[in-house]
Design goal:
Two copies of one chain form a homodimer. With 439 residues, chain A is of the alpha+beta class. Helix content of chain A is 40%, strand content 18%. Chain A has two domains: 16-330, Bira Bifunctional Protein, Domain 2 (BirA Bifunctional Protein, domain 2), CATH 3.30.930; 344-438, Anticodon-binding domain (Rossmann fold, 3-Layer(aba) Sandwich). In chain A, a hairpin with a 5-residue loop joins strand 15 and strand 16.
């Protein structure tokens, strides 16, 4: 039941354990991208409204969060800014703004929140992290293979093992339509229907295709070629009859051969029935899927005219978008209990002892450990030991009147309960050694 | 001159070198906070409008970016969400929402963008990173000292050396007003005027104080006590006459004694004329300043009733806010040229050689290096070597027909021009060794 202290609908607060789990995954992904020579780009959370409008179609446009004009214009109820909806339109703007300052090709990744006024649901948020990597300015299939491989390695780096990559090409699909004599004017509608083959039974798709104007036998033949056990072979044969089909097959086979030695066996397969819905793709297309997971773990492809259509320069491009939120839900260890908050907990057993306790915590930190003094109001050792335990501390430094007189600290191992007296000046060294011994 | 491809007024695009410089500093700061036992918190970029309204005063409220209602309500021109203005109101909301799930005390840091519809200017942006650390639920002065020390260590961790900390206490200021017989009803106005002593000549502040209703001699005496060479001694003597003054001095001296061994000598000083403008402070207050830098590098203090005033539970609190953007402008190396993009650049000298070149780049990555193949359209070695050089690559892997026949790769050291032939299967090991030798 939502209450007035909940975050806004479709957004989330991330407490420590969630932040740490997410940031750990993000760091692993950034590290993969950097090793591939992709560089980071950060653009503002909002753009001018005119930069975003007209770029996402009618349905997308409804999901844009608009920001009210400020000052005396506020009363007009008009908007002049809007929260970013994706990372691609900002990329087109940046390519236009910084052209010659950017390397050629421009290989960049962007990872940050995007905002959509969508109906919230499972894995569907109004603020969520989008993670894109793109190469602008290269027509080489090596660029497609590189983006795909980097996306693959990113999933592997966060610990996913059970996933596969479906590879296809827009030109394979064009060739397929020609080979099955689909009238050109029905082409895009037919592809939209074929895209449903992974969710709907073949018969339902055949019905939809006949509604779109295909003859029943033609529709059945097409669906059968895509869903038969030997679908790939049937399609390969059909494609050799058309120029687009031959060119598309060559794209697919080139990408497969580039990745053959890089990806685990069986990880990637030519999947002719995989149709990425978006019409702007022009070359290879791919989708990452996992068994039992509805929807994709990310997808991408070549889009040689999109950047110009979005208002940027006329640069060929290829890119991939990682479905970060869904991916995070599959990362091993999701839902594990919170890690301990402290390594070293230091008691404060009296006002006159506080400065030395404060210094002991600093000694723990200088050994690279997380260390803090007790900040509560109890002067009782027992209460403070409970706090040390609740913090998950590995060691508790006890410093009372007795220790002060002997110029030592008592270090209690919170796992074993064993205690050692350490000369006050040697505590940093003691912890450095203990941390090493602990690994 | 702004053009249509610029980011919105008051916001910035960060290309690779800037992102890397900023993230490097942020990582250093996070690491310091973690060692002090502060845990991360991430809240949404926007809040419900009613959570933010009535929290920032009239002037602050004008700077809130409001988000238009969606769907059929859009035409109403009304807002129901707003971009977060700071990290403190979200903290109060989180403290209310998750109460018992949070540790006691709750030590958290938040680092992320906040948004203000301010007039853009030098170091003043409409989207900027705010970095706060706070401890809720402790009345101990150890908590204040810990926050201050962590803020200090964060600045040191990013490489700042030339800065000092001005320390004071709200109760010192209250005691001071009593000691100088300032009528209680003039108190807050007088403090606002005294806060200007670091920017305006003493005479101007005296004039302002008399306008506020103080007698000229009284105003002059007060200003003199705060600006004289022996100001601290004069103030200490005056404060011993009032209860608040005695209590405030005790706060200051306790914090100074806790930090004495932790901060470099001369880094922190009792500064009675330092008045933090915000009226919600109740105990120690501090400000980080640097010579030649207008404004502060961050500031903080104890605010024992603020969280309740902001709609949260009635928890004592103390916190500090790092002025990240100003700090970043002082970080050594700001403005340095971009670091190299690649360690290993791999040529692609023919379609039949591409798969092996692609595998060589993977070998570089497996050695932990940043490696990529040439993605351009030229088949010329010379062009590709220029690309390798422009990428800042340390090594270029040349793989032509000759190398293919000998099953080797030619590795060119881009600094010395020396070349070595490496058996194709041994390239990963070669680079691992070369990277180690390079440090």
């Amino acid at each position: 039941m939502p209450n007035r202290f909940d975050p806004p609908s479709g957004t989330r607060d991330f407490l420590a354990a969630d932040v740490e789990r997410r940031e750990h995954a993000f760091a692993a992904i950034r590290s993969v991208f950097a090793r591939y020579g992709f560089e980071p780009l950060q653009t503002p959370a909002f753009e001018r409204l005119d930069v975003l409008m007209g770029k996402y179609g009618d349905e997308g446009e409804k999901l844009i969060f608009k920001i009210l004009r400020r000052g005396e214009h506020e009363a007009s109820g008009e908007a002049d800014l809007a929260l970013r909806y994706d990372m691609t339109v900002p990329l087109a703007r940046v390519a236009a703004a910084y052209g010659s300052q950017l390397p050629t090709p421009y290989k960049r990744y962007a990872m940050g929140p995007v905002f959509r006024a969508d109906r919230p649901g499972k894995d569907r948020y109004r603020e969520f992290v989008q993670c894109d990597l793109d190469t602008l300015g290269s027509t080489s299939l090596l660029a497609d293979a590189e983006v795909l491989a980097a996306h693959h390695d990113a999933l592997a780096a966060v610990g996913l093992t059970q996933f596969t990559v479906q590879l296809n090409s827009r030109r394979v699909l064009t060739g397929l339509l020609t080979a099955f004599s689909v009238p050109p004017e029905l082409g895009s509608g037919v592809l939209i229907s074929l895209d449903k083959l992974d969710k709907q039974p073949p018969g339902a798709v055949v019905d939809e295709l006949t509604e779109r104007g295909l003859a029943v036998e033609q529709a059945a033949e097409l669906v059968d070629a895509l869903t038969a056990p030997d679908a790939v072979d049937q399609v390969r044969v059909a494609l050799t009859k058309t120029d687009d089909g031959i060119a598309g097959l060559d794209e697919v086979d080139t990408v497969l051969s580039l990745l053959a030695g890089q990806l685990p066996a069986g990880r990637i397969a030519f999947t002719p029935r995989m149709v990425r819905g978006l019409s702007y793709y022009t070359g290879p297309i791919w989708e990452f899927v996992a068994p039992g997971v509805a929807g994709s773990l990310g997808a991408g492809g070549r889009y040689d005219h999109l950047i110009a259509q979005l208002g940027g320069p006329d640069l060929p491009g290829t890119g991939s978008s990682i479905g970060i939120e869904r991916m995070l839900s599959l990362v091993p260890g999701a839902g594990d209990p919170s890690p301990p908050r402290l390594d070293v907990a230091v008691t404060v057993l009296g006002p006159d002892l506080a400065a030395q306790s404060f210094a002991f915590a600093a000694a723990g930190r200088s050994a690279g450990l997380r260390a803090s003094v007790y900040l509560g109001s109890s002067g009782k050792l027992r209460t403070q030991l409970k706090w040390a335990n609740d913090s998950g501390a590995r060691w508790c430094v006890i410093y009372g009147e007795q220790e002060r007189q002997a110029a030592v600290a008592t270090v209690r191992d919170m796992r074993t309960g064993e205690q050692a007296e350490v000369p006050a000046g040697e505590l940093a060294g003691y912890f450095a050694a203990a941390a090493r011994a602990d690994g």
